[in-house]
Fold each of these.
Amino acid sequence: MRWWIARRTHDAAQPEEADATDLLLSAYLDDDLAPAERDAFERRLSDDARLRSDLAGLREVVASLGNLEELRAPRAFTIAAEDARPPRGFSRLELGVRVGALAAAAAFVLAVGVDLQRGGSNERTAGDTVAVRSAAESTSSEYSAPAAPAAGGGNSAGVATAPERSLTPPTDTAAPASAPAVVPTTFVTQPTAAAATTTPASSAQRQQDQPSTPTPSPIASRTPGGANSTSTTTSALQGAAAPTTTPAVAAAASVTSAAAPALAPVLTATATPTPPRPTPTPTPPAPPKADAATPAAVQGSGSGSTQVAPALPADSITSTPVAEERVAAPSIAPSTGSLGAGIGTDSPSGRVIVPAPAANDDWGQAAVRVSVTSHEGIDSVRASEFGLGALALGLGGLTGWFWYLRRREAAANV
Amino acid sequence: MTEPPTTDAAPRDDFPADATAALVQRARAGDVAAFNQLVLQHQDAAYSLALRFLGSPPAAEDVTQEAFIRAYRGIAKFEGERFRAWLLSIVANAARDELRRQRRRPQRSLDAARDDPDQPALDPPDSGPSPETSALTGELRGQLEAALRELPEDWRMVVLLSDVHGLAYDEIAAATGVPVGTVKSRLSRARGRLRDLLRGVREPAGLPGRLEDRR
């Protein structure tokens, strides 16, 4: 092993030494040595016959190379004026990349501008259609809305707001024993004046088709309750019963809840206490019975998001999942009235909308809509924005690369 | 013992500097005829550099033509005094680009072409005699040309520009895009390799050259 290492070291050192000698010889031939170096090298030459031999061989090589005759060109390489004209414009690829970069940049700016014009939030405007599913259909959901910790500050409509929450889906844990009594999410499709567009016929038919027994919502059952959320919803419902509510604003009261991840199923639950007087909407024929001791609760599907409404008569709660409905989102424009300020806290993942009743509705007619809207569409919009941005950056980089190559070629030519 | 350093690689720019400068000025003004006179003056040098570097006459022709077109397009930016060195640097760049292009392109197998009766017979570029063959013929030029082809490309270009075409260190550095120190290093190695190759050819059974000592 030692022999191998020594041999390797020796072999490695030899070329370096030879290269250093050749470098010195070459510099001496080209008169590129300083006077002191040249004197020292000449003294070394006088003592080293091998060095003199190497110098003679090197001198012969240089002289021979210098004596190589120029080869005759096989033809004249004269140029024509049109051939020598520099190419105008860009190549097809370069032109395509530039146009693509401009288009992508314009699309990106347009998308961002539209988003900013909408308020830069996830708000949906009136007229947007949101997919609605029943809570019963969303039982398989692993997602839940967080609690609304406080009532909407000073809002008579009781619009509760919820802080931003972690997007981490909650674990499937049972509700603590100390949690407030949870009523199964007994909902009835109640097309109110401004909130829902569910057709009465379909709603009634659906109610007839659905079993009348209230089904506890798995989401609700695994949702731990909290004092804040309880008071929040209570406030919301009280506010919803405020007689000063205007119809336009009635549907505007919303509770926006943070939380459900983007792929959380759309959940809309409408709890409608028994209306004391007829409404345009057909009343479900057989409202299910609920536990009288249990207050009506509207569950935001999520951990800590229990929103408990005031205790209602047990027989006033009907339940019908509103499966696969598409309802028009209520108007949430803040300028629609005093309750309009009750726009829920913007949430990146979902919101709970609690529309207030119409002005002529009393508390019994208040329809509470809890809607956890999916942000799948919004996320897709943002994904497209990011995609366009990435595309613009990529195409811009290609354009820059083309520019660099052209500059480099121009520099190399000169 | 004092031997004055001498180099026989004299510059080949035999044309009067004034006449060349006048032609350059006219060419810079867009006079194609004046530029073509410069082409005729220097095309042999340009073609020689391209052919010795590439080893293929067709490729050398293409490179030479491309270099003159590049030179005409860029002559407005030429402000030096040595038009020949500037032109050869363009040829060197074009030749290196051509070499890179050849590497990217899939090369056709000569054996496959030979086996295909429908294909016309290829005329491979004259690779010249091998060092052994050159030793038998005893022609120094052939030996040197063959030894040049044995050099690495970077070394070959430097030694061609320096010892064949007489460019200075800084001109070679500008043409090849490497520092002057690298030019000196490559030049000394190329010369040493050529010396060893030639020594090995001349003394095939005799004393081994230094190249064999190193390996």
Note: The radius of gyration of chain B is 20 Å.
Amino acid sequence: MNEEKKIALKLEILAREKEAIRRKLVITARQLAVTAKEKESARRSLVVTARKLAVIAKEKEVARRKLVITAKQLKKMSETLENKVLARTKDLEQIRSRTEAILTSIGDGLVVVDKDGKISYINKSFEEMLGWKSGEVLGKSMVQVVPREDQNGIKVLFEERILTQVLSGQKFVADLTNPFYYIRKDKSRFPTSSIVAPVVLGGKIVGAVEVFRDITKEKEIDKAKTEFVSLASHQLRTPLSTVNWYSEMLLAGDAGEVTSNQKKYLEEIYRGNQRMVELVNTLLDVSRIEMGTFIVELKSTNIVRLVRSVVEEQKPQIDDKKITFLSSFEDNIPLMQADPKLLRMVIQNLLSNAIKYTPDKGRVEVSLFLDNKKNVILKISDTGYGIPKNQHNKIFTKLFRADNVIGKDTEGTGLGLYIAKSIVEQAKGKIWFESDENKGSTFFVVLPLRETRK
Amino acid sequence: MKSKTKNRTILVVEDERPLVQAIETKLEKNGFDVITARTVEQAARYLEEINNIEAIWLDHYLPGDKTGLDFVAMLKSPDSKWKKLPVFIVSNTASNNNVRSYLRLGVSKYCVKADHRLDEIVTEIADFLDNPEK
């Protein structure tokens, strides 16, 4: 190879290399262009992000400012609230101590129980009257802590306690007629009068409040009254006995013969005086009933015989008025536990009323029959004046006499039915009547037999 | 009216003058010899002094410190020589407690003046003395 050829070859190689480089450069340039574009787009997105961040930052700042304000407000509010609560608490405290002071200072004993009858509050008077300290009785059953007994020292059963009845939703009961006693911690007792009321929250009984007081003083006054009545009646009876006995002796001729006219006058004196004696006796009975000094002596009593003897006793009046008298007694009426004297008074009152308030030639019926073997029923009916409908509810009231008989020539005190009702109810019986004016009346008495065998 | 061969002596303890007179008259008409006293003390003295007293008619409330009840308590005490003497209480104080106390002490009868005729009471006493075991 010659030189020229060699150079030409070398040049050609160079040219080729150049071309290769140029191509490479073109490629690189293209690549660079692409990168530049990418960079530009990245820059742009960065700008957007930066702007967004700026916005968020601004928002954040706004929010922060708001929060600062709210926090301040909250602080202020909480301070106000705190102050208010403090003031309110103070008020409440005042009210509470006021209430407490009032409850504590009540002269009557006071006890609050929950729905189970457990003591949740007692006042000072409770402590003083019963000898228990608050700490000893809180949470304990009132009925157990403070036993209650009747006049005769018989304990009132749990289920019969007013407190129990009130808590079980029974209607409010306040029995002031029968005195009862509360037993102190030291087992001594005092007569009590109490009132129990339920505590109702949202329509439900959640407990009860009982207020009670010591009625020793009242009892003493009552006793004095009884003694006074007894003494007064004694004083009344003495002159009555004098009139009674002297007119009796005059009538008997103990002071010489009396003319028939004198006899008539003496008989009037005697009868008038007899009425006075009966009146005093009736008044005595009423005062005994009212003062609870009626002594009940239960005995095995034959009620049929009792009714028969009362009828026998009133036979003259029945015959006088030509009254048709009928009686019927169921067979096998057993002996019953009753006070014959008191039972007799009931029968006497009802029968004498029937006779008294039935015009001549009327009809009176007496019957005795059993009901379920547990009760005996006495039924006394007449065809008399009857009781006006509008006075039915008053007929057992003391001293009440119906309009339609006051005008008639009948004696009466308005005490008979009052006494009868008191006796029947004391014996745990019932008394009622049916009556139509000018047709007659029927009285019913239901008495528990409390049967006794001979 | 029963005729008696020998009169019975009865001590009437009652303070109300008109009543005493009536009681005395009625009892005498029924064949009793009557001694009257106004107080428990007086009655006790008569009992000691007069030894043929067969019965006592006694009121409850009497003047002085002692009531009929005190007198009966004394009469019926275990070592009393009048333990068996029948006592009839005739009083207007029918307090249940008094009646019970009298009957517990062993009096023969208790009756309320105002509720009884005088001749009724006298007859009852006479009958009782005739048949003491009844």
Note: Residues 76 and 105 of chain B are 7 Å apart (CA to CA).
Amino acid sequence: MTNSINEFEDADLFFVTGTNTTAQHPLIGSRMINAVQQGAKLILVDPREIQLAGFATLHLRQNIGTDVAVMNGIMQVIIEEALYDREFVEKRTEGFEELKSVVSRYTPRVVEQITGIKAADIVAAARLYAEADKAMIVYAMGITQHVTGTDNVKTCANLAMLTGHVGRPGTGVNPLRGQNNVQGACDMGALPVVYTGYQKVIDPAVKTKFEQAWQVEGLDDKAGLTITSMMAAAQRGDLKALYIMGENPLMSDPDTRHIELALSNLDFLVVQDIFLTETASLADVVLPAASFAEKSGTYTNTERRVQISHKAVEPPGQARADWEIIQEVCRRAGYPMDYRSPDDILQEINRVTPSYAGITLDRVEKEFGLQWPCPNEDHPGTAYLHKDKFTKGLGTFLPCDFKPLAEVPDEEYDFILTTGRVYYQYHTGTMSRRIELLEREAPEAVVEVNPDDARRLGIRNNDRVELSSRRGTITLKAEITQRVPHKVVFSTFHFREAQVNLLTNPAHDPVSGIPEYKGCAVKIRRCA
Amino acid sequence: MKTLAKKDLVDVLRYWTGHCTVMTPGRKSHDEIVFDEFDEATFTLDYRKPSLPPKSSCLPQSETIFQVDSGTYEPRISEAKVLLFGIRACDMTGILQSKSFMTADTDDVFYRARAENLATVVMACSGPQNETCFCTTTRSGPFSKQGFDLQFYDVGDSFLVEIGSDKGAVLASAKGFAEADDEAARKRVELFRHEAQGRIALLPEVSQAMERLERGGVSEELWDKFGSKCIVCGGCTYVCPTCTCFNVADRHSGNGGGERIRTWDACLYAGFTKEASGHNPRKTQGLRIKRRHEHKLLYYTDRDTHEGLCTCVGCGRCSDYCPVHIGTIEVVKAIAGEQS
């Protein structure tokens, strides 16, 4: 997030898209609800009628996968009606003419054709967003999990820069990260292209810096593979071994049947996790890891806040903290890694990561954590980014054209399946499905079907239905609900008994490698 | 009546720890006040209303109630003796109300064992602990009238100590306590009570809401409005001194044995009332919120109130902690303010 969680209470307007916030980030959702009840406006762009729809000033239900067109349309109106922040655009950005030329094609009438949103609503949204003093764009996986995920994110940034809604409290572009430490994992370089703090592996100076820090030579200066490319390489036989930590791709990756083939094709698979997951069941070696309560360290949350977590109980059996396992593996492989504690590791992070330089154990302990960038020990941390100046200097508009879903419905596969989560279960259920109360609340996979579609197909509430894509078939219970629009069905990937990712499309974003979980073509029929 | 010099309190607490587990307020990291085992380093008398009521002393958040192994059954009935030092009168009333609710109709042996082994030392409040206190309305504070073993009144350098039971008399026989059964001490306590009561504003909307509920005059729209913004965290029930609903589950150990556990539950969850058929008599979040507040303000018996107004004890925690402001204060104000 460019901005901070507490700023939600003071914003004037939220532009919320691709996040079921009250279900997945309920405490952020509650801040939005409180702000709306105090007079803030809410523009919700979401195909589903989620809880926040009840608080929306405008609820725009776009056709799935048309987000670029929606926001281009809004920007077209903002430029056409001269509602953009002229001073901000002139002083702090570049590429305005290119943006203008691309979005000029997206008139409200054209956008209505693509997105299914009424032209008048596009105009209304544009005026509301541009005219608000403090407006926050808030998104989650509904924006990123598309073949156009990167384009979607760039377009969000274009919209914020065009209106100067960035670099001040209560503004910005705010992706809500899905896990307590997904921000931290990215910050620490658990990505194929960067070291900590997003220092690029292809940069020779960065390479030298880490070689010196770690007293080694010949660090790889080529970008690595994304998960989707790894699986493809494994299937081709180009990738021989995988070491998977805290991830359950056999449930969470798209087109799971192919994932199983890919993993089976490996010479060697190691899985490190707190429970024996579906993926771990395929492993040659399983390394038992300690859970959050059984180890100490820091997490970095969605607002870039580094927070401390103390060990509360000893790990069971042979389980150890991840860092201890990795260290032991490195030692056996011949590298004398020698950290004594999580604090040792944090001190190295401080030394090699400019944005984390001032985030010491002592400070995070005393100060309810610290938000990066925090370049030295006297720096108070950063509540919001891009004040006065973007990291790279001028903010560049990166206009994108609308591209459709990789797999659009046809005569046979005539529905769009969009996937997500429910409040009570977490990801592939490795943890949450072991909690009796959560299982009581959400015991099985359900597919949401619109009442008109259900009537036409002879499906009644709680009927078992068969859901098929070109990649597989699952059977699960139908919930008849207005929450989903016509010709769209929604389900979740929590349940091994009805693995929705057997159906999803592995087509992925060319830059980030993220698969298109949010839309693929399916057919649905009542089970005989 | 007894008296105890403040400087002797730590010695008394230390003495009591020789006889039972003593729970006291402690100032933990980031100034959080937590009731925890007595620890001289963190013990404090400068505390207001702790975030959580002391209900886990009788109903732990999660507990094993029995274990089975091939052919054997072993109930887990607690024998631990626990003393709660410094609880507030509202929470004392909560313990009393919960105890009769949990043991009178159906004897919950697991609960009763803990409740009977519990000793309570109330610290009378000299005024509101924060802006959400309304115990004078619910007649559950600022001092306790019954149920406590000892009640402390802070009168400066010393405490005046009221003895409420035989158990309390034994506790107050510890070194440091002195007799103070004189007219002056009684007057001092009377004055303390009178002043404390005067400092805590009445919340007339509580009785108004109770009357309205009794008449059936609350609109469904009011509940739906609260329901539409509830994020279903269940926090209001977890911080409530009188919410005692629990879920029961079996955990198999894999070799023919296992344990039955129970954990706190919340009527705010749809699954709490959902029936096997899938039908749910409380089918919307609004109806579930309605049910919760009716249980505090409408459906209770005089047996369980222990001279309180109802089964809300006015601690105000639900209003303190609900992220979207659906606490009892907000609810009774909305009901009382609704056009009839």
Note: The mean pLDDT of chain B is 95.
